C-alpha cells in the first residue's frame, strides 16, 4: 500500500489492534471511523491488514460497481465450517447459479402466501403466555422464527427439537465469530474444548437436516412448491444430474440459520426499544388498534401499518442484524482515491454507518418518525443498508420484513412487554449477527 491512510498507534504489539477490537468491536470501529476518517488501517496480527471503509460512495464501489474485484472475507469463509458452500458463502458462477435457483421461492407473491402461517405460529406462542410472567424473550423470538422458517421453506415442524437446534446454532455462531477475528487458526482436528463443542453442534444440525432430506426424498408425493422441493428437483443444465445430499444440506443449512437468526434479533431489539420508549409504544398500539380493530393481522394490512414498519426500520438502524460486511480484494483495485492489493480486507460496518451524525440527526436516539419522510432518498444509498447491497443483497429481505411486521402486530396487539425488574444493562454482542448479550428477560402483560 502506498496510500496515505490513517493507521493505529505506532509501536503496536504483534497482535496489532486485535485485542482492542475484541474487547469492544463496535466501540472500537465507531471510534476509529470518527477519529481517523473514511478509510482506516487496522491490523489483526502481524500479517492481516484490514481497512475500515466509512464512506457510502466507497462502500457502493466495493459492493456494487467493482464487486467482481472482491470475494467474501475471512469471516464468511470461516462460516463454511457451519453452512458449507451455500448461498451465503459460495462465489462466482456457483453463487449465481444458486441464487437463480433459490430466488423464485422469495418472490413477493409467493412469500405473501406464508403470512397466515406466520401469524398462526405467533398466536400459538402467545396463547401459551401467562399474564405478568417473566420470559426470556430472545429465546422466544429465536424459537418462533426457527419454527416459521422450517415450516415455510421445508414443510417440517421442529418445535420438539427447537432447544437442541437453537443451542447448536448458538455454539456455531460463537465459534465462527472467534475464528473470524483470530490470527492463529487452530485446525478443527485439534481436540480443544472449543473444537469439540463445535463438532458436536455440527453433528446435531447435520442429523436434523439430513433426516429432513432423507425423509423428503423417500416420499412420492407431488412437488410442494417449497424451497426443499425445488432443491431436490433441480437439475444441472449440462448433464441433467441433481444435487447431492451434501449440496442440498449446504443450502438448507444456510436458509435454516440465516433465515431465522437475523429476524429474531431484530424482533428482540424492537421489543427492548419499545419498552424503553413509552411514547413510541403508545403510538404503536394506537396504530394496531385502529388498523386491525381487534382481528389478527394479514399481509394485506402491512401497507397500512406504516408506523409499525418505521419502528422496524429504526430498530434495524440502531441494531442492524448484520453489523458489518467484509470483502477481500482478489486483484489490485482502486476504491475512491485509494488503491488496495490482493489479500487486503475491506470492512464496512452498518453499525458505524447507521449512527453517523451527518446522515441521522441525534443518531443514538430511537425515533421511528425519522422514516416517515423521504430520508432514504435524501441520504446516500449506503448510509443505511441493513440488508447489504449489490448482487449479494440478502435474498430473504422481503420475507424478513413481512415476517417481522406480522409478528410484531400479532404479539403487540395482545401484550405489553416490559424489561424484567433488576435486569442488567442490555448490550449488543457482535457475533456473526448482532445479538443482545446474555439475552433479554421481559415481563409480558396483557393489554
Number of helices: 18
Gyration radius from CA atoms, angstroms: 22 Å
Supply the CATH architecture: Orthogonal Bundle
Shape descriptor reads: globular
Distance between the termini: 60 Å
By CATH's scheme, which homologous superfamily applies?
A: Cytochrome P450
In quaternary terms, these chains amount to single chain
Structural class: alpha+beta
Q: Biggest sheet, in brief? A: 6 strands, mixed
Mean pLDDT: 88
Q: Could you name the CATH class?
A: Mainly Alpha
Query: How many domain regions?
Result: 1
Number of strands: 13
Strand order of the largest sheet: 1-2-3-9-6-4
**Strand composition percent:** 5-15%
Low-confidence stretches: 7-12
The share of residues in helices is 40-55%
CATH topology: Cytochrome p450
Characteristics of this structure?
single chain; 447 residues; alpha+beta; Cytochrome p450; 6-stranded mixed sheet; 3-stranded antiparallel sheet; Cyt_P450_sf; monooxygenase activity; iron ion binding
Task: Give an account of the 3D structure.
This protein is α+β, with helices and mostly antiparallel strands. The chain has a single domain (6-446), classed as Orthogonal Bundle (Cytochrome p450), CATH 1.10.630.10. It has helices at residues 18-23, 25-36, 56-65, 74-78, 80-83, 92-102, 108-112, 115-127, 137-154, 162-180, 193-217, 227-233, 245-276, 278-292, 306-318, 350-353, 375-378, 397-414, and strands at 6-7, 39-44, 48-53, 70-72, 133-136, 325-329, 333-335, 338-340, 345-348, 415-419, 428-430, 434-436, 441-446. The strands form 4 sheets. A 6-stranded mixed β-sheet has the order 1-2-3-9-6-4. It has a 3-stranded antiparallel β-sheet with strand order 5-13-10. A hairpin with a 2-residue loop joins strand 7 and strand 8 (338-340). Helix 10 (162-180) crosses helix 11 (193-217) and helix 13 packs across helix 18. The longest helix is centred in the middle third of the chain and has 32 residues, at 245-276. The radius of gyration is 22 Å and the shape is globular. The termini are far apart.
Amino acid at each position: 500500500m502506498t496510500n496515505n491512510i490513517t493507521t493505529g498507534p505506532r509501536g503496536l504489539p504483534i497482535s496489532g489492534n486485535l485485542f482492542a477490537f475484541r474487547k469492544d468491536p463496535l466501540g472500537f470501529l465507531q471510534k476509529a471511523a470518527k477519529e481517523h476518517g473514511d478509510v482506516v488501517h487496522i491490523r489483526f496480527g502481524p500479517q492481516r491488514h484490514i481497512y475500515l471503509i466509512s464512506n457510502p460512495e466507497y462502500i457502493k464501489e466495493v459492493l456494487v460497481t467493482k464487486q467482481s474485484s472482491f470475494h467474501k472475507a475471512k469471516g464468511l469463509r470461516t462460516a463454511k465450517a457451519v453452512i458449507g458452500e451455500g448461498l451465503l458463502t459460495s462465489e462466482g458462477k456457483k453463487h449465481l447459479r444458486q441464487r437463480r435457483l433459490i430466488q423464485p421461492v422469495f418472490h413477493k407473491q409467493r412469500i405473501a402466501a406464508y403470512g397466515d402461517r406466520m401469524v398462526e405460529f405467533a398466536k400459538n406462542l402467545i396463547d401459551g403466555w401467562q399474564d405478568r410472567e417473566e420470559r426470556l424473550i430472545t429465546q422466544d423470538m429465536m424459537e418462533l422464527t426457527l419454527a416459521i422458517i422450517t415450516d415455510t421453506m421445508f414443510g417440517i415442524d421442529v418445535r420438539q427439537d427447537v432447544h437442541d437446534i437453537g443451542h447448536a446454532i448458538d455454539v456455531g455462531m460463537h465459534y465462527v465469530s472467534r475464528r473470524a477475528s483470530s490470527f492463529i487458526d487452530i485446525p478443527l482436528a485439534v481436540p480443544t474444548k472449543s473444537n469439540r463443542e463445535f463438532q458436536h453442534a455440527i453433528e446435531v444440525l447435520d442429523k436434523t437436516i439430513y433426516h429432513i432430506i432423507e425423509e423428503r426424498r423417500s416420499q412420492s408425493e407431488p412437488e410442494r412448491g417449497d424451497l426443499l422441493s425445488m432443491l431436490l428437483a433441480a437439475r444441472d443444465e449440462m448433464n441433467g444430474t441433481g444435487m447431492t445430499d451434501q449440496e442440498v444440506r449446504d443450502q438448507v443449512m444456510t436458509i435454516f440459520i440465516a433465515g431465522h437468526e437475523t429476524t429474531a434479533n431484530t424482533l428482540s431489539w424492537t421489543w427492548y426499544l419499545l419498552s424503553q420508549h413509552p411514547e413510541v409504544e403508545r403510538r404503536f398500539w394506537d396504530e394496531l388498534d385502529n388498523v386491525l380493530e381487534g382481528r389478527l393481522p394479514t399481509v394485506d394490512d402491512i401497507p397500512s401499518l406504516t408506523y409499525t414498519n418505521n419502528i422496524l426500520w429504526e430498530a434495524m438502524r440502531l441494531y442492524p442484524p448484520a453489523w458489518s460486511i467484509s470483502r477481500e480484494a482478489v486483484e489490485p483495485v482502486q476504491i475512491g482515491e485509494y488503491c488496495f492489493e490482493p489479500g487486503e480486507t475491506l470492512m464496512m460496518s452498518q453499525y458505524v454507518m447507521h449512527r453517523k451524525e451527518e446522515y441521522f440527526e441525534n443518531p443514538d436516539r430511537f425515533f421511528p418518525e425519522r422514516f416517515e419522510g423521504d430520508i432514504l432518498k435524501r441520504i446516500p444509498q449506503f448510509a443505511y443498508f441493513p440488508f447489504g447491497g449489490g448482487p449479494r443483497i440478502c435474498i430473504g429481505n422481503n420475507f424478513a420484513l413481512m415476517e417481522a411486521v406480522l409478528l410484531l402486530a400479532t404479539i403487540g396487539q395482545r401484550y405489553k412487554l416490559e424489561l424484567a425488574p433488576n435486569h442488567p444493562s442490555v448490550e449488543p454482542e457482535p457475533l456473526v449477527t448482532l445479538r443482545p448479550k446474555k439475552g433479554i428477560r421481559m415481563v409480558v402483560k396483557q393489554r
